[in-house]
Design brief:
heterotrimer; A alpha+beta (about 180); B alpha/beta (about 725); C mainly alpha (about 375); B: alpha/beta; N-terminal domain of TfIIb; Rossmann fold; 29 strands; C: about 375 residues; 13 helices; about 75% helix; binds ligand MGD; binds iron/sulfur cluster; binds molybdenum atom
Amino acid sequence: MKKKRFAMVFDISKCIDCKACTVACKAENNIPLVKDNYRNWITEGPLRGKYPKLGQSYIPGQCMQCANPPCEHVCPTSATYVNVDGIVLVDNKKCIGCKYCMTACPYDARYYNEKTGAVDKCTFCVQRTSVGRIPACVETCPTKVRVFGDLNDPESEVSKLLTKHPYRVEKPEIGTQPFLFYLV
Amino acid sequence: MTLKPSKGISRRKFMLLSACAAVGFGTMSIGKRFQALAASKDIIPLSDLGNRDVFTTCGMCVNKCGVIARVRNGVIEKLDPNPYFLKSRSMLCARGNAGVDSVYSPDRLKYPMIRTGQRGEGKFRRASWDEALDLVVKNLSDLAEKYGRAGTVFVSSEEFQEHFFTTFAECYGSPNTLRHPSLCLSSNIQGFGATFGTNPTPDVLNTDYIIMSGANRSEALITPDSIDMLTGSGGRRKLVYLDPRFTKTAAKADEWFPIRPGTDMAFILAMIHVIVKENLYDRKFVEEQTEGFDKLVPHIEAYSPEWAAAKCEIPAEDIRRIAREFAMAAPKAVYYQGRRSSFFDNDTQMRRAMAILNAIIGNWDKIGGMVPNSQIPLEGHEFVAPFYEDIPERLEANAATYLSEKDGSWKYFRDRVLEQKPYPVKGMMIYKQNPLVSVANREKTLKMMEQMEFICTIDITMNDTACYSDVLLPEATYLEREDPIESLGGIHPVLVWREPCIKPMYESRPNLWIMQELAKRMGDEMSASFNYTMQEYREHQVKNNPEILKALKEKGVYYEKDTPTYGQTIGKKLKTKSGKIEIFSQKYADKGLDPLPVYKHPESGPAGQYRLILGRTAYMTHGTTANNAFLFDIMSENHIWLHTSEAMKKGLKDGQMVKVKSPLTTESLRLLITEKIRPDCVYLSHGFGVLSKGQRLIFGKGGSDAALVEDFVEPISGNMAMHHTFVEVTAA
Amino acid sequence: MTTTITNSKNIIGFSVLGLGTLLGLVSVGYVLMIGHSNAYNLTRQIPWGILISTYVFFAVSCSGLCLVSSLGHVFGIKEFEAIGKRAILVAILALLTGFGVIAMELDHPFRMAIWVILSPNPLSAIWWMGTLYGLYLILLCIELYAFIKENHRLASLVGLVGFVVAISACSNLGAVFGLLEARPFWHGPYLPIFFILSALVSGCALLALIVYFNHSLRGIEMPPEYKKFMITLGKLQALLLGILLFFIIWKIIPGLYEKYPGIYEATMAALSGKLSFNFWFFEAFLGLILPFILLLNNSTRTPFGVMLAGLLTTVGVFFMRYDMVIAGQIVPMRISDGGKATGVLHYVPSVAEMGIVIGSICACLFVYVLIEKKFDLSHTGHH
Ligand SMILES: Nc1nc2c(c(=O)[nH]1)N[C@H]1C(S)=C(S)[C@@H](COP(=O)(O)OP(=O)(O)OC[C@H]3O[C@@H](n4cnc5c(=O)[nH]c(N)nc54)[C@H](O)[C@@H]3O)O[C@H]1N2
Ligand SMILES: Nc1nc2c(c(=O)[nH]1)N[C@H]1C(S)=C(S)[C@@H](COP(=O)(O)OP(=O)(O)OC[C@H]3O[C@@H](n4cnc5c(=O)[nH]c(N)nc54)[C@H](O)[C@@H]3O)O[C@H]1N2
Ligand code: SF4
Ligand code: SF4
Ligand code: SF4
Ligand code: SF4
Ligand code: SF4
Ligand SMILES: [Mo]
């Protein structure tokens, strides 16, 4: 089978900051329920304008699944690695908890998971996506802000969205080559 | 296969479906996949692969979305959305995803309990079911003896097994059932009902123009409206949003106006004024399908946009423009009526104005308009309630003009209990309602409960009301229960049910069982009304079409068609007196009410005080979910919102503690300074500041709106009016 | 008479160090009991705290000591030959202490031992850090052995290799931070170079302390050649401090100039924000200006003055490491919280973190003083 390159596309104009994705992720991935522990998040964009003419966007984020991932480069034991589908993962048993990857990630995408004793981050729900299902956050999103798919497949919805619409990535100047795309 | 109505299936939808189809395949071969993955170190292997995917229905709020529960090793590991589920558009919200915690929360009610300490002290002892049930029946019998059968009130909120509770009330012989609508949508039902004979559903998916006032669909989630509002139709969609707060709906709206609270009617009347004066209404429709338009014309004469602008603080030119745009978009335009209408004491008439505005543009029963609900019929459950002599009327009979016989009015009912007039009510049976948190003026509810000789609560957790009860009966949660089939009405009517995902934990039991056991102890006559199993009950519900059961088992949902039918009522008599849409309500005139909505300006508060307004967040359901570990993780306290300019005047700092003082009480709250609210209002979300120490995560966190809010009332429907309270805010 | 005074001084000194060490041990026990996340004030946004900066302090001090002392036994500058053995001993102790501190910071020090070998990542600066400092520790031990056995050929050979490794190790430690593009305040070649320079400063400062106290502690008058050495050391240190001062100024100016996001906020935190007291008082005044003045002035450039300057600089450098580590993380990676200024993040070490830091310093001194008392480390070398 052809190699996959999983990616996620966000239509943030539809995000209502309902946090369904956050809870779905915590439930799906058994994330210890402590405030600092999460694999995905929604930031409230800056409040535009002055009362009563206001505007605001809500911007979902999670590990960008960088093609050039600094977290992998810095990991002394190669606990952080990239799998065949382009997903950046952590091998729990190799993680020594040095947290170098946490300081290296430009997106604050990682946290230390006490339960697994390793640094943790979004895995694109590898347990689901590798059996043909979609990630928990994508599946549950009420307004379908999130689209997941294989960029190596030109027929996938992510490919089509990215050919049809202009998009941006977060902090492109750092050269991480993120695979989370935000439609503009 | 088409799932979505007229707009066709999007590719994404299709993807979701195929993803779901892959689930079956995935579960079959998942073991092997896991082994392979484990070998490639991509995942940590699970020890046991015994899988069960249960199609059931979410029970975290009123929407009842479709759920697939992934049960692994006898544990509900994850709740996923049911992609077949038309109404919820294949989603679960934060609360839906958090549902597992209602099963596994350490704070749930595990065993029957009998109070040992003072009421409210939270001291209980574990009892056997027999002992607890015997005690309830003994009290019910004693109360009937002492005060008559009306001396016990049966309090409940909507739930699939609520029917057994109200059946029990009826069989027991009490006319006093007290349900949630008088805290929620009574005025809405009344206002639209008086006009259309029913409370229709706005066709949000297909409309081109929505005006929303007092309905916050990005946070107060109603499926499918919350989703369709954004999915909308091809770029032409316009959303105008009126709310004193910049909510997450405001963030999605094309235009937001921070309307002065309680003045929505002025805006609506002015829109009608423009549409009528400028001849923008649907003349043909008005002539053929409505009554009393001629009386409307002079009525709205005075309600010009300029007049309204002074009331609602939305510029006249905007009102005029919006009215024109709205009429131009007709019939694919809706003035969205929302749901909760427990805001102001003129809410029924305000909703009447909304209904009339919708009527005159002729959006009735058309695509993109106001569509009367359809329902898939189910065979009703018939039973013979024992006959008792001398059963009086409801306690609060005649208090409101149109009191719902079944739902009652919390406001009037509680007042009469406290007055002990016309007769005493000394017993309280509570099922799935939490009045100490949901009913305005908590102090009064506490007094009402104090004077009760017996209170029994059937719930799943130690909420405040349970904490003030004498006997607690633990119900199994929605994920543990087998529930009756429920017919969810709407543009796309569906049938749903619940299948148990796991056996009820601890000693919790489904309500049917509890009612059966109580009835058994009440005597043979009552017992006869509960003489069936859940399976028999369900089979009876679908006896005309047993295929339904199969569909439910396979997909968790049943519907007859996936496209809506419009125009079913066109040419037919509506359920109003005249059979037409009643712009002018003779019925109201006869009762001495305004037959056309007359504007009443809300009072202003004392200088330096703020109007307290209430509303939802997307991750909490009323007072029931704050203690859910997943949701507590997202929101662990409620904050009082205050506009930046006011905070500056007072020298208050963001995040500091403040005292919020209403005429009833003072609550300490953390301050949130924001641009997102009118300077003359403060806002507080619901569900914190609890009394019960049994809600361990949230006890001591935030403050209670129910304690602060005064209990004004809408006199036509008996609905609570919760936005008439003014508060002071001072540094703590 | 004198002996009783020294004795009671000794007892007090040892008790203080012993108590400090005990505090460290208690803290370690506490951390092992309740777990890192409960014991440390670290967050996902500031994952590195005072334990890392203390480790850096020790590791760079170790490198510095060797670099400076290699002036004697590698480069043959006569005056510096006097302190070879002591410097190496202290370097070993400092490095071991540093390793101890970082072991407490790592969640799985034992996993590390296995996986850095079985699954090495040569792209990782931390992998190199472990490797280089590990290698370095071995070299130091051999060097010490050579000194004790008075095998000068071996000593200067190992010393030469050690010199290279020391420079690599400490500049690589700078690179641990400098390679992170995500952290603009750290990013760039500045830190590796700065680490070498500041290592030299640390080394001189510590050397001054060692030379001074190894006499005063044993109650012996400092021989003239050591006095002369102290003065030379003072002059060298003055030069280094002067350079360091300019390094710091040239870190600040670009930080303010373009208002580059991430650098500007961190620089401002140091100048006028959360870290400003640390910066102005400890780093700049105590660590830099005051010693600089002491060392420039002929009348204060006495052995005591040089010692004092060294002490002040050592304290200053300790804070310099802390400020550097924290300032790099203080700017959130995700800005914007609904238009409210989130500002910079907040970190204060927890009691357990402080306990471990104090304990580690005390333990290091304790062992050093003990060895100093038990063994004769005086240089007996003749060439
Ligand atoms: N997440 C979530 N969703 C829910 C529920 C829940 O608890 N949580 N509950 C469900 C239930 S039972 C109901 S009834 C519905 C309620 O649904 P809604 O009625 O839409 O919700 P509310 O949040 O009560 O109120 C809506 C908005 O009215 C604004 N408002 C207050 N006063 C005025 C006024 O005078 N004029 C105008 N124009 N606006 C005003 C408030 O600021 C608030 O944002 O939500 C349902 N959906
Ligand atoms: N201040 C203020 N008051 C309000 C509102 C507001 O916005 N602000 N909103 C109003 C509105 S719109 C409504 S609809 C009402 C709702 O008011 P309520 O009907 O009282 O709703 P909840 O607070 O959801 O309480 C439901 C109770 O049911 C319990 N429960 C949950 N699941 C089960 C179950 O499976 N079985 C049993 N037996 N119990 C269960 C929960 O523990 C909880 O105690 O509140 C109204 N009151
Ligand atoms: S679930 Fe979707 S709409 Fe909700 S917060 Fe997440 S991305 Fe936004
Ligand atoms: S976002 Fe961060 S954690 Fe994810 S791949 Fe990129 S650098 Fe690594
Ligand atoms: S914390 Fe774990 S995953 Fe991160 S760099 Fe260190 S060893 Fe690698
Ligand atoms: S893809 Fe999976 S792991 Fe990643 S944020 Fe979404 S739910 Fe979490
Ligand atoms: S809206 Fe959320 S809580 Fe309500 S039924 Fe649907 S998923 Fe459950
Ligand atoms: Mo409601």
